[in-house]
């Protein structure tokens, strides 16, 4: 699993780590602060942080003794781009559907006098 | 979900479900529900919009009604990508279908398309694609969405709202 996107997805496959990322999106926090809401040890939280760090999702800054954990928001952009690629494919498909629907409407209006409208039939 | 009564989906909007391995898509169309339904159920109409721009679509088998099934092939030169599935339910405004890319037969998604009337000749399409595991969704994109990170989606929402994408 060498590519950055796979590492990010793998890191975020864990609900605790997702929750930690969500909280870091609000503000930087120390390991102790991050551990506070969980019924697990600081060591366990540190392990989770190592995974997030390995995926490039968080970094540790050297701010005196506090060393808060910082969310690298641009890594999230990778995922946003990934989602956007799928969205664009769907949108292209629906633009083709737009064109088909427009032709259907034109066709129906052009033939309304000589054929009965097929409203409601689905075949 | 982030749907509000005033929201208009002039472009496709997507969202990950936070509880199950599913993807939601919304899109509004300038057509009646009956027209939109016909574009999904009539094989000749369906083939005209379903495949990617660069690929051709050949319908091998098409029986879009309750308990029917389908198979279609996207072609690109001598490359072929085949998709197949069944239709557990087809009603006036809803199509439930299974979806399988034949190269990955172990991954079968359940898709529910629902069409609602917006009035004035406009309709809304809501698609829900439910995969059989988060891993399967990983395979198709959805892994990207599995991560339910609200900030990521909020950012995407802002980009979409600002028309930057």
Give the N-to-C terminal Cα separation of chain A: 47 Å
Low-confidence stretches of chain B: 141-165
The topology string of helices and strands of chain A comes to: HHHHEEH
Order of helices and strands of chain B: EEHHEEEEEEEHHH
Question: What's the total number of strands of chain A?
Answer: 2
Rg of chain A, nearest Å: 25 Å
| Beta-strand residue percentage of chain A | under 5%
**How many helices of chain B?**
5
Instruction: Specify the number of helices of chain A.
Output: 5
What is the overall shape of chain A? rod-shaped
Percent range of helical residues of chain A: 55-70%
Greatest contact pair? A-B, 42 and 48 residues
Uncertain spans of chain A? 115-123
Main structural class of chain A:
mainly alpha
Mean pLDDT of chain B: 80
Largest sheet of chain B: 9 strands, antiparallel
Beta-strand percent range of chain B? 35-45%
Task: Give a nutshell description of this structure.
Chain A has about 120 residues and is mainly alpha-helical. Chain A is built from 5 helices and 2 strands; from the N terminus they run ααααββα. Chain A is rod-shaped and about 80 Å long.
């Amino acid at each position: 699993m060498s590519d950055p996107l796979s590492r990010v997805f793998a890191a975020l496959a864990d609900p605790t780590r997702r929750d930690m990322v969500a909280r870091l999106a609000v503000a930087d926090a120390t390991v102790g602060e991050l551990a506070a809401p969980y019924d697990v040890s600081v060591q366990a939280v540190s392990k989770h942080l190592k995974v997030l760090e390995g995926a490039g999702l968080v970094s540790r800054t050297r701010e005196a003794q506090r060393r808060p954990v910082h969310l690298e928001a641009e890594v999230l952009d990778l995922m946003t781009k990934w989602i956007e690629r799928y969205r664009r494919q769907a949108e292209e498909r629906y633009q083709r559907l737009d064109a088909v629907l427009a032709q259907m409407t034109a066709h129906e209006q052009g033939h309304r006098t000589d054929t009965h409208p097929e409203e409601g039939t689905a075949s | 979900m982030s749907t509000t009564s005033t929201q208009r989906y002039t472009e496709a909007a997507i969202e990950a479900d936070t509880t199950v391995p599913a993807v939601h898509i919304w899109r509004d169309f300038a057509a009646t529900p009956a027209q939109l339904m016909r574009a999904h159920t009539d094989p000749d109409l369906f083939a005209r919009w379903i495949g990617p721009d660069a690929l051709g679509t050949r319908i091998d088998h098409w029986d879009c009604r309750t308990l029917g099934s389908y198979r279609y092939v996207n072609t690109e030169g001598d490359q072929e990508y085949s998709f197949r599935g069944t239709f557990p339910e087809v009603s006036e405004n809803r199509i439930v279908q299974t979806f399988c890319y034949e190269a990955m037969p172990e991954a079968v998604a359940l898709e529910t398309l629902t069409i609602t009337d917006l009035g004035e000749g406009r309709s809304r399409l809501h698609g829900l694609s439910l995969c059989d595991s988060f891993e399967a969704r990983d395979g198709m994109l959805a892994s990207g969405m599995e991560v339910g990170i609200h900030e990521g989606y909020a950012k995407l929402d802002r980009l979409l709202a600002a028309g930057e994408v």
